[in-house]
Design goal:
Elements: H1 10-15, E1 22-27, E2 38-41, H2 51-67, E3 71-72, E4 79-86, E5 90-95, H3 100-107, E6 108-119, E7 125-135, E8 142-147, E9 151-158, E10 163-171, H4 182-194
Amino acid sequence: MKIAYATLFILLIASCSSYDYIVESDYSYDGDFSKYRSFDFIANASFAGTDDEKVIIEKYLNSTLNAWGYDHKPKRPGLLVVYTVFYDDFYMKGFDQPNFQGWLKSNYSDKEVVFKKDTLPDGRIEEIYATEAVRKTESYKEIKYSLREGTILVSFFDRRKHKTVWQGYASGVFGQDKIKNERILRSAIVRIMDEYKLLAFGSS
């Protein structure tokens, strides 16, 4: 597929831009970002948030991924989505990397492949084409993030490769009293996902 960028929720992001928190992400150079088209959530036994927060987080992650062409598919999805919240300050390992969208544009080249075949009524085979990316390799440079009180972390786990391929977070969103305002939590999820904003394989 062609690497494409969604422009959803721009008005929402702009209207909530006054919230004082930090949003960042990092990714795996081995991720098959040209091929993902389905996802499911996996349970996180260590999730420290409330049931209400869990519902809100899944609601906006689900709606965003659906809007970008990803199917919510409980059976054999390409991506498993994991999320959690942290109420205390903590350190997390990350990577000093180029911006994700910039890296995709500069490190992938497109080649055309058959995405789907259909048999027409007259017996002819119709091939529907898409493009997939040929990935270049990179080296990692580890860094340690110091994250502020009240962090939401979202990770994408490649089910077949058994590894995390992308993670994004918003730090300093809320404190020990937990989230009381759905708008703030929704804004944080939208801004985290804006770090990814990649259409599913086969979407246009």
